[in-house]
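Now for one record:
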Amino acid sequence: MHEIESFAFANEVPWHGLGNQVSNEMSAQEMLEASGCDWEVQLTQNHYPPNHPKHPSEPVPKSYFIERMNDGSILGEHVVGTAYTPFQNIEMFNFFQEFLDKNQMYLHTAGSLYNGKKVFCMATTKEGFTLGKDDTVVNNLLFTINHTGTEANSALITPIRVVCANTMRLAMDKGKKDVVKHSHKVEFDAESMKTALGISSEQFGKFEEFAIAMAKRVLTGEEEVEFFRYVFGGKEREQDGKLIQPEGVRKALAYNRGQEFRALGDRSKKETKQSIIDRQGKENDHLKATLDDLIASLKSGKQVSEKDIEKLRASDEDVVTDTVPLSPTADDSVVVNPGWDNDSAKGTLWGAYQTVMFMSDHRPVRDYGDDIRLDRALYGSSTRAVDIKTKASNMALELVA
């Protein structure tokens, strides 16, 4: 069962293929209805059961549950106190209307997750930047209501890489929050929220500087492997005198070259002696092309040295990447890791960083379904562990420092 209860989107069809496609000129009210979020919640008092020995069917003092009024379903916790104040979906959507009226943004995506427990609306702003010729990143404002009784509402600025719809977080300053919270225990203050989001928007300018630095930073083969190893973890092993990286690293290495991933077992079963010779020849050609690209980068001002090139050659000889070239398909729209070969991304830290974003949103090492991927794309990991996007940002900050 999908946890994406209802959904609406403007422009390109999302990867999960669900929801209603709408115009990017919709008002807040129109998007509310198109996304299936035009319902309200209320606090309903809990009651003792009819067979209770002392208070049969009597109301429980100061004890309520959050009820969705259109169908009577209970959202989140069965018990909340009198301090909890419901925040209606229409209030969140109307928050965007002022920006829409001023033509400062348009509503991009909205929907309901987990049977109404989480409702979100995301708008694309007029802010953005382009790396190289055509690698565009736009800024988005994501507002979420939690009808659970346990979490605050939240708003955050999230950049999205247009070519592949990768979502990113503004993790420029370690320890600095990039999420604006609104507790259900206090009255919603739209002006304070806008002020706080303005500060977050300043972070988008810093992110542009960060992205430019990543696009200039060419990675050696050794650095590429270390980057993905830091992000995905796992233990490497030795086989036939060659170093075998963990599955997550091998997948990342494949996707970072625009190639499909094939498990080692599949290769050993299906490859003939001639195909192995042919593949190795192609890998050698790929290595030569990569080296040529790095030398060309020297002339274009990217931060790379001859020593980096030597490291790349040495590491590519020692590491089994476990990749195969992308096979032609009848559907030309099927592309592995779109944008991997952009000038800004090919062989650079920006490309490796975006490969992590792509894997997190579209091709996770362990895929638990479209709904979970959407939730993680918008909000990050729900576990206490640091998610891979944050780890990628932290590592990238060190590499460009």
